[in-house]
Design goal:
The longest helix is centred in the first third of the chain and has 14 residues. This protein is α/β, with parallel strands linked by helices. The chain has a single domain, classed as Rossmann fold, CATH 3.40.50. It has 7 helices and 7 strands; from the N terminus they run H-E-H-E-H-E-E-H-E-H-E-H-H-E.
Length: 218
Amino acid sequence: MRLLRVPGVYRPQSDTWLLARTAADAALPADARVLDPCTGTGALALAAARGGAAQVAAVDVSRRAIMTAWANSRRQGLPIELIHGDFSQVLNGRTFDVVLANPPYVPCAAPVPVRGAARAWDAGGDGRVILDRLCGLLPTLLAPGGVALIVHSELCGSETTLDLLRAHQLKAAIVARQTIGFGPVLRSRATWLEDVGLIPPGRRHEELVVIRADRIEH
């Protein structure tokens, strides 16, 4: 999929494509209402639309990302609803059959940025500022029988995500993994990651995981 991207918008990378492949292989509800809560270029939203979703809503706090996703949707002739803002504040109680999430998850020493390109990946000292909020909201975002697929690095705690989702009465499991070398962002802060104990000395690779959460009605 060829995508336009303006400076400051996250470039789809291994995590995006791992999640897209996992979603394509999963037994997701037919004619689904899909939410992409951190859309960036719109890559996942567009993949869902191309895959037959009945409705696709794409949300981002970045105006540049929303403009980019709009341009890509027009270029490819795929209708998606674009919403500017924080996914935890702008959906007004709506529910979805599928949530496809590639949220910011990279651990960082500095406070979480409120503007600039790093807002698309920096997520606090443990990388969980956005992840924890998303996990807590999923029980209300998912319709009965709904499914969420979330991609993130093992560096921010796969088991923590599983435990949090299960604590919110969702069925949760890791359904895909991929090991990749550090990109420029992680390479630039590898010494800090070693110092705080997030990686052992000398390690320069990470494992990406896709976690599936199902809202099971009892």
